[in-house]
Write a structure and sequence with these properties.
Elements (H helix, E strand, L loop, with lengths): L3 H4 L3 E5 L4 H16 L3 E7 H11 L5 E3 L2 E8 L14 H25 L6 E4 L5 H9 L3 E5 L3 H11 L41 H12 L6 E4 L7 H4 L8 E4 L22 H7 L6 E5 L8 H14 L3 E4 L16 H6 L4 E4 L4 H5 L4 E6 L3 H8 L5 E3 L6 H11 L3 E3 L12 H12 L4 H19 L4 H14 L4
Parallel strand pairs: 1-2, 1-5, 2-4, 5-6, 6-7, 7-8, 9-10, 9-12, 10-11, 12-13, 13-14
Antiparallel strand pairs: 3-4
Helix pairs in contact: 4-5, 10-15, 15-16
Bound molecules: uridine-5'-diphosphate-xylopyranose.
GO molecular function: quercetin 3-O-glucosyltransferase activity; quercetin 7-O-glucosyltransferase activity
Pfam family, one: UDPGT
Keywords: Glycosyltransferase, Transferase
């Protein structure tokens, strides 16, 4: 292995907001950039890099293709990782902005001094200050938008005041945007709604801050693919900066499996899936952040047991400081589930979705999961909670036709009964429309494969980006 200075010409520094839903696409992109011959440094907070190291064991530099991947960390100002105030985004995000700005500047400067100056910084949502740092230091900056083009379009039109949105006086107003189906008031990203997600208002500010700072960004990369988002993309093509869909990022062929899990994945669930009949298992996961109401946990449990199909359920222990409680597995399930289901705290989701035993996925519709679903050919039962998940659920069901909606959002608990859970599972796996859901799912899987393979739209878009980076001053 040569030194970083001798082997590589262009150095891309990727910086991830400290959350699994951001780490995964950023790290996947870093691997692909390394495989195209660049030096790609994946960076995030000390806490995140420590967690990745603990659960995967690998944060050492690694040669991939003609390039190299490295991990680095900087401080977010929280020395005590267990400080419960960290989980309050209204406290965490402003502090991260202040401390992160300075410590990230130090990180970038360290590279110039050590002979590997940064040619390009790649940022992602919730940290608009990264493009300020790039501008201050005179380094070109790109953004990896880790959600869909249709959600980007909603925020874009909101930020530029190009359409009318629900207000306090008209909270039920639907939204009409070019290239998108009519969105009911509970189908726009919930942070933009005047009533929903009041505890996450700070996320609206940082996302809109990102749109304000787009003038400091030369390119927006999106973890999506053109074939999926043709209509959503059309009105954005004339907007600046240029938008390049380069996904599904996890589909890119990798020589080495470098993962960014923040928790150890229960590999034994693959063996458990091997023991189940083809197309029989209900996979259930609500991603890395959402904490369900306790009543919802109980209803899902009853629904899973009533429908009689085996199930694999990822239940992460809720954070100690979780204000609303909930998120716990009912005690009685532990006895009753024996033999019928497997509950784990974290699983290798990509491998689970690719497993032939999986019949359907009850999902919160985070965009990473949505991309993995559309690339795996698995029908879904959508149970979105907040943010972009509610819009993703609308598209996955009504536009892409890969399943049904159990919930419209976390505010929609009135439809959440165990009977409805069981009915939705039956509807997507055995009902009259089950075949159509599966057919659509397989159609999107093929489109995703085509986009990611050599010569495909996403493959070419990433190549164009790499050429742009290679043309930058070192
Ligand atoms: C967050 C937001 O909630 C989401 O709406 C936004 O689009 C991205 O950031 P998160 O809630 O964690 O993400 O969901 P998701 O986007 O689906 O990302 C979760 C990732 O963790 C996926 O890549 C999934 O494969 C992975 N995962 C999840 C595992 O590897 N194992 C698990 O057990 C569960």
């Amino acid at each position: 292995m040569g030194s970083d200075q001798t082997l590589h010409h262009h150095h891309v520094l990727l910086v991830s907001f400290p959350s699994q839903g951001h780490v995964n696409p950023l790290l996947r992109l870093a691997k692909h950039l390394a495989s195209k011959g660049l030096l790609a440094t994946f960076s995030s907070t000390h806490h995140i890099i420590h967690k990745i190291h603990k659960s995967t064991g690998h944060v050492q530099p690694i040669d991939i293709g003609g390039g190299r991947l490295r991990f680095e960390s900087f401080t977010d100002g929280w020395e005590d990782h267990d400080d419960p105030r960290r989980s309050d985004l209204n406290v965490y995000i402003p502090q991260f902005q202040t401390v992160g700005h300075d410590s990230f500047v130090q990180l970038v400067k360290k590279h110039s001094e050590s002979g590997t100056p940064v040619s390009c910084i790649i940022s992602n949502p919730f940290i608009p200050w990264v493009s300020d740092v790039a501008a201050e230091l005179g380094i070109p900056c790109a953004l990896l938008w880790v959600q869909s083009c249709f959600v980007y379009s909603v925020y874009y039109h909101y930020f530029h005041n190009l359409a009318s949105f629900p207000t306090v006086d008209q909270p039920n107003k639907s939204v009409e945007l070019p290239g998108l189906p009519t969105l009911e008031s509970d189908e726009i990203p919930s942070f933009l709604h005047p009533v929903y997600s009041p505890d996450k208002r700070v996320l609206k500010d940082v996302i809109l801050g990102q749109f304000k700072n787009l003038e400091k960004t030369f390119c927006v990369l999106v973890d999506s693919f053109e074939e999926l988002e043709r209509e959503s993309l059309k009105p954005l093509l004339s907007s600046a900066p240029i938008i390049r869909p380069i996904g599904p990022l996890y589909k890119w062929k990798e020589e080495k499996d470098v993962r960014g899990d923040m928790w150890s994945a229960a590999e034994e669930c693959i063996e458990w899936l091997d023991s189940k009949p083809v197309g029989s298992v209900v996979y259930v996961s609500f991603g890395s952040v959402a904490v369900l109401e306790q009543q919802s946990m109980e209803e899902i449990t009853r629904g899973l047991l009533n429908c009689g199909q085996p199930f694999l359920w990822v239940v992460r222990p809720p954070p100690k400081e979780s204000s609303k409680g909930g998120g716990r597995l009912p005690d009685w399930l532990v006895q009753q589930a024996d033999g019928k289901g497997l509950v784990v705290q974290w699983c290798p989701q990509e491998r689970v979705l690719a497993h032939p035993s999986v019949a359907c996925f009850i999902t919160h519709c985070g965009w990473n999961s949505s991309m993995e679903i559309l690339s795996s050919g698995v029908p879904i039962v959508a149970a979105p909670q907040w943010g972009d998940q509610v819009t993703n659920a609308k598209f996955l069901t009504d536009v892409y036709g890969v399943g049904v909606r159990l919930l419209r959002s976390e505010n929609d608990l009135n439809t959440f009964s165990s009977e409805r859970v069981a009915n939705c599972i039956v509807e997507v796996t055995k009902g009259p429309k089950a075949e159509e859901f599966k057919k659509n799912a397989l159609k999107w899987k093929k489109a995703a494969d085509d986009a990611a393979r050599e010569g495909g739209t996403s493959y070419n878009n990433l190549d164009k980006f790499v050429m742009e980076v290679q043309a930058l001053k070192q």
